[in-house]
Amino acid sequence: MTANHDSQARAAMNSENEFRHPLDVRFFEVDSLGVVFNMWYLGWCDEAMSAFMESIGYGYKALRAQGYDAVLRKAELEWLDSLQAFQQAEVAVRVDHVGTTSFRLRYDIERVPGASQTGGEPTLCAQVAITYVCVEIDGRKRARLPLGLRAALVQDHT
User: Fold this and answer.
1) Three-state secondary structure along the chain?
2) N or C end of the chain, less CB within 10 A?
3) What sign does the dihedral 148-150-153-158 (CA atoms) show?
């Protein structure tokens, strides 16, 4: 099992109605200063979004089978602290807003103590908010959120 598949197997909803997606910072994700290059934060959010959507029954395969897709409309990222190669992190995913044709997810990217470390609190490294718009696959026109997806997102939001 690869590290990525292992991380996906460990992703789960916690007691605070928050989906958490673990990741290991890989060497190629750091820049010349030895910290994560900024583009990777959005890539990690995309991975976490895919795992979260799968967990509520609306992964890309299921959504596309209904003739829809969710596309990025707007992304906001605030960097707070560095992550370095070989550190462990988690992306906490929360539903922030559910509209008629769109939804917004919030992501907290935290450095977490590694398996070899004991104790210690997670450190918030970045906060991201991404708005996704539902579109029809044919024609790429904006569409209402499928009722089942909307219900799953609202349920997670409460």
Assistant:
1) CCHHHHHHHHCEECCCCCEEEEEECCHHHECCCCEECCHHHHHHHHHHHHHHHHHCCCCHHHHHHCCEEEEEEEEEEEECCCCECCCEEEEEEEEEEECCCEEEEEEEEEEECCCCCCCCCCEEEEEEEEEEEEEECCCCCECCCCHHHHHHHHHHHC
2) C
3) negative
- Of 12-16, 95-99, 111-115, 126-130, the one with minimum mean pLDDT is 12-16
- The model's pTM is 0.85
Give residue limits of the domains in the chain: 3-157
Reported as half-sphere exposure (CB side, CA atoms, 13 A), residue 154 has a value of: 9
> What pLDDT sits at residue 156?
66
Given a contact cutoff of 8 angstroms between Cβ atoms, the answer to whether 90 and 41 are in contact is no
pLDDT digits (tens, 9 = 90+) for 57-81: 999 999 999 999 999 999 999 999 9
User: What homologous superfamily does CATH list for 3-157?
Assistant: Hotdog Thioesterase (3.10.129.10)
Q: Which of 128, 130, 138, 127 is nearest to 73 (CA)?
A: 130
Q: Would you state the pLDDT for residue 108?
A: 98
Residues written for the chain: 158
